[in-house]
């Protein structure tokens, strides 16, 4: 039985669609602008260049989101995917930037995107490396890796310094979390579906009333800004291209896991050809945004949590999110206004969304055949993934390429799970040749009866 409120090809009423699209935008915007802001700060770029990076990231993410959702020929998975700049590329980008500047980062991104474009044609083969046990591990690790991000937001953000964990911050986050829970559980129709954006709006209004919102960035932001392709220029250092190529390979693994989680959330059977279209969009999209002046993009895992929480799987809703992101890139004042949302407000909603991904992963794990082999795969891969998520400094003294590959808990958990699945012997079992494996999909937690 399919319990989605809106299915993949459904078109909700216009007002409902706008609200739901804004919800996805709020979940993704912080992550999209964070990468160019981090790069700008570390490379000590002037303010005008940082603004150009941010605007290009928003516009590029919006355009590629539309293509991923709607599809253009063989490009685009045609599922509700929000695309955005990825932290998987930050390490490589910073190392390239120190030596070759932003032109080196963009040129390396453009050249190395060929790795993902070519790799997309082998996704039917790669899909075979992700049986149900591996997929369940990856989905669980996505949620486990994202929860610490929400916790940091709830505490005030990593840059909060002495105010990190301030009772006021935690109180705001808990208030937003309780509001979202109440709206999901007791709300009907659009109230339940738009619980995240409504909860954040109530929390934001409370912060404004308490004088906790700084509007100075809105006053400084330009109302309109045209895109400036090749604003930074490009260079193509061989070392930079190789570093970015490794980052693209790691991103392919993470993106595959995110697509598998998305398939579970949207009740879509994730076949190899479908993965090929999605990964091809990631590669072509990253080449496009590099020419626009932005770091590479990939599929955002956090928005899978929005779908799991609300039951809204319409790709047309998320395509409108792409339009809103593109508008934020063309009208910086809009992006600046959204950025004024206090971190604890994001944290309260984020904790709920990301925990939903963990719940989906746990439900998938419950359908795994329980034996010594699968127990080892699950335990070791999740343990290794958590090790680098909780203690990222663990890899600090290892070569850079090792950190690039295993720096993310998602990629570490996925790689370990795939390797163990290939290496550990499997007891032969009798399978009916006419029976196609059809793994039960996890139910949406919002539709479960309360305990």
TrEMBL record:
- What InterPro entries is this protein classified in? NCS2, UacT-like, Xan_ur_permease
Query: Which Pfam families does the record associate with it?
Result: Xan_ur_permease
Q: Where is this region: Disordered?
A: 431-451
Subcellular locations according to the entry = Cell membrane
Drop me one GO molecular function for this one: xanthine transmembrane transporter activity
Would the keyword Acetylation turn up in this protein's UniProt record?
A: no
The Swiss-Prot or TrEMBL record describes its family as follows: Belongs to the nucleobase:cation symporter-2 (NCS2) (TC 2.A.40) family.
Q: Which UniProt keywords apply?
A: Cell membrane, Membrane, Transmembrane, Transmembrane helix, Transport
Which GO cellular component terms, listed alphabetically, does the Swiss-Prot or TrEMBL entry include?
A: plasma membrane
Tree of life domain: Bacteria
Biological classification of the source:
Bacteria, Pseudomonadati, Pseudomonadota, Betaproteobacteria, Burkholderiales
Regions crossing the membrane: 50-67, 79-98, 104-122, 134-155, 167-184, 191-212, 232-253, 317-339, 346-368, 374-390, 402-424
* Membrane topology label: Multi-pass membrane protein
User: Quick check: keyword Cell membrane in the entry?
Assistant: yes
Enumerate the PROSITE patterns for this protein: XANTH_URACIL_PERMASE (PS01116)
Its predominant location is: membrane
State the protein's name. Answer: Nucleobase:cation symporter-2, NCS2 family
């Amino acid at each position: 039985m399919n319990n989605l409120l809106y299915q993949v090809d459904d078109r909700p009423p216009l007002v409902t669609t706008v609200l739901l699209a804004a919800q996805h935008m709020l979940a993704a915007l912080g992550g999209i602008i964070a990468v160019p802001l981090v790069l700008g700060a570390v490379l000590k770029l002037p303010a005008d260049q940082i603004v150009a990076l941010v605007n290009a990231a928003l516009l590029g993410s919006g355009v590629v989101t539309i293509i991923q959702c709607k599809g253009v020929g063989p490009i685009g998975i045609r599922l509700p995917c929000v695309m955005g700049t990825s932290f998987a590329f930050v390490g490589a980008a910073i190392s390239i930037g120190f030596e070759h500047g932003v032109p080196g980062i963009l040129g390396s991104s453009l050249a190395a995107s060929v790795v993902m474009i070519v790799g997309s044609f082998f996704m039917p083969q790669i899909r075979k490396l992700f049986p149900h046990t591996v997929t369940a591990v990856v989905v669980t690790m996505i949620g486990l890796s994202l929860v610490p991000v929400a916790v940091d937001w709830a505490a005030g953000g990593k840059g909060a310094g002495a105010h990190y964990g301030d009772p006021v911050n935690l109180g705001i986050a808990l208030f937003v979390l309780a509001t979202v829970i109440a709206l999901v559980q007791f709300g009907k129709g659009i109230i339940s579906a738009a619980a995240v954006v409504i909860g954040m709006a109530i929390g934001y209004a409370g912060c404004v009333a308490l004088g906790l919102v700084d509007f100075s960035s809105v006053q400084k932001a330009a109302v309109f800004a045209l895109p400036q392709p090749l604003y930074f220029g490009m260079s193509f250092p061989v070392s930079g291209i190789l570093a970015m190529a490794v980052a693209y390979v790691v991103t392919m693994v993470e993106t595959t896991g995110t697509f598998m989680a998305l398939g579970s959330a949207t009740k879509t059977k994730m076949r190899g050809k479908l993965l090929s279209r999605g990964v091809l969009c990631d590669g072509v999209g990253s080449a496009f945004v590099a020419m626009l002046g932005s770091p590479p993009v990939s599929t955002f895992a956090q928005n899978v949590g929005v779908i799991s929480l609300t039951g809204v799987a319409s790709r047309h809703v998320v395509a409108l999110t792409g339009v809103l992101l593109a508008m934020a890139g063309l009208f910086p004042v809009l992006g600046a206004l959204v950025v004024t949302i206090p971190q604890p407000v994001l944290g309260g909603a984020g904790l709920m969304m990301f925990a939903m991904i963990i719940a989906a992963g746990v439900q998938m794990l419950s359908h795994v055949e329980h034996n010594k082999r699968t127990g080892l795969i699950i335990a070791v891969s999740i343990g290794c993934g958590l090790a680098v998520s909780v203690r990222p400094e663990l890899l600090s003294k290892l070569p850079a390429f090792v950190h690039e590959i295993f720096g993310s808990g998602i990629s570490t958990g996925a790689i370990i799970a795939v390797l163990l699945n290939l290496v550990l012997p499997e007891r032969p079992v009798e399978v009916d040749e006419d029976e196609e494996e059809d793994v039960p999909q996890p139910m949406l937690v919002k539709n479960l009866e309360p305990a």
